[in-house]
Amino acid sequence: MKLFGKKNPAWKENPSYSALHARVYSRRGKATKCEICGKTTGKIEWASTGSLKDVSKYKAMCASCHAKYDKDIKNLRRRKK
């Protein structure tokens, strides 16, 4: 039986970026289809769309959609300043 979250003895309140992605991979498996464009070939990765710690806030995206998403978010943040 796998222990998730704070029940796991290896749990860290402030894990590294790579540990967060490893957590998503262990809970949701390998990303195989882009949820934006539907692409299934090439690099498909888990992209955070909210809280980095919330596994449900990640979407599978191809590298192109992930880069566009990150650029759009960066531009939104700039406009708010």
Care to describe what's here?
The protein has 81 residues and is of the alpha+beta class. The protein has one domain (11-80). Helices cover 37% and strands 12% of the residues. The chain is built from 2 helices and 2 strands. It has a two-stranded antiparallel ribbon with strand order 1-2. The protein is flat and about 40 Å long. The model has no long low-confidence stretch (mean pLDDT 85).
Tell me the strand percentage band. 5-15%
Catalogue the unreliable spans.
none
Query: How many distinct folded domains?
Result: 1
Write down the overall mean pLDDT: 85
Class computed from helices, strands and strand pairing:
alpha+beta
The first-to-last residue Cα distance is 47 Å
Number of helices: 2
Number of strands: 2
Which word captures the global form?
Answer: flat
Order of helices and strands: HEEH
Kindly report the spatial arrangement of strands forming the biggest sheet. Answer: 1-2
Q: How much helix is in the residues?
A: 25-40%
Summarize the structure.
The chain is an alpha+beta fold and 81 residues long. It contains two helices and two strands; from the N terminus they run H-E-E-H.
Give short descriptive properties of this protein.
2 helices; 81 residues; 37% helix; alpha+beta
What is the element layout, followed by pairings?
Layout: H1 17-28, E1 44-48, E2 58-62, H2 63-80
Antiparallel strand pairs: 1-2
